[in-house]
Amino acid sequence: MSGAGAGAAPTVSVVIPVKDDAEALARCLGALRAQSRPPDQLIVVDNGSSDGSAAVALAAGAHLVFCDEPGIPAASARGYDAATGDLILRLDADCVPGPDWIERMLSAFAQHPDAGALTGRAVFAEGPRFVRRALAALYLGAYFAATWPALGHWALFGSDFGMRRDAWRDVAPSVHRHRDDIHDDLDLAFHLGERHRIRFVHGMPMAMSVRPFASASSFRTRFVRGVRTVVLHWPDDFPPRRWARLRAAARSRDLQPWPG
């Protein structure tokens, strides 16, 4: 792991892309300031906001990065490029992490030294409490079930995941950062999962907004982007071809340690 000496605790960068979401960003940054283990670097990537998002980030002491190229893929990649921590954690501006989110992420990476990336789950922050977890479990369960056949491994959930900076540097040249019509987390999973293990970890729920699913058109847009992301990687990552490569890589890893 780069940057951490022998026995030294890894450093952590948190990346938040944002566009015109100042109020939600303020809540998110407040929750990050209250972490039991604060981040070593807090990066907010302003993706062309016309509201006060940039001012909110600066007031919170975040490292503000501007990305004029539209789209979450470009903004997220810009943030990962700017990260200096050994671990890069990602969440959305409308998410509220639990008070020990970073601490739990660090513990999970320590428990899984073979993993290049870890992803977790989330609960909806709005609506009746008894419905929030069930709906979130249904949504995320469908997401992971639908993407597993295409990937051959866990997908990344953009509201709650982390990766080693070395793993990001390994795949940074190949991600589709200049496409604003795809899902950046799913695209990243295609590239990371080829050479780095992605694990799902329990016990790190993230509170996320239900806003993206408030209308049929919004949900349809997400679905179309997901399909487009998968098809974008064909024919090289057409499932039979990808699965064969992953099986060959797994056999190779029996002879040498998994990188990361």
Description:
This protein has helices spanning 22-33, 53-59, 72-82, 101-111, 129-151, 165-171, 184-195, 216-232, 239-253; strands at 12-18, 41-46, 63-66, 87-90, 96-97, 115-119, 122-124, 161-164, 197-200, 206-208. The chain is α/β, with parallel strands linked by helices. The chain has a seven-stranded mixed β-sheet, sandwiched between helices. Strands 5-10-7 form a three-stranded mixed β-sheet. Helix 1 (22-33) runs parallel beside helix 2 (53-59). The longest helix is centred in the middle third of the chain and has 23 residues, at 129-151.
List the helices and strands and how they pair.
Layout: E1 12-18, H1 22-33, E2 41-46, H2 53-59, E3 63-66, H3 72-82, E4 87-90, E5 96-97, H4 101-111, E6 115-119, E7 122-124, H5 129-151, E8 161-164, H6 165-171, H7 184-195, E9 197-200, E10 206-208, H8 216-232, H9 239-253
Parallel strand pairs: 1-2, 1-4, 2-3, 6-9, 7-10
Antiparallel strand pairs: 4-8, 5-10, 6-8
Helix pairs in contact: 1-2
Structure described in brief:
The chain starts with 11 loop residues before the first strand and ends in a 7-residue tail after the last helix.
Strand-residue fraction?
Answer: 15-25%
Largest sheet: 7 strands, mixed
Structural class based on helices, strands and sheet pairing: alpha/beta
Query: Considering DSSP H and I runs of 4 or more, what fraction of the residues is helical?
Result: 40-55%
Structure keywords:
three-stranded mixed sheet; 260 residues; 44% helix; seven-stranded mixed sheet; alpha/beta; 16% strand
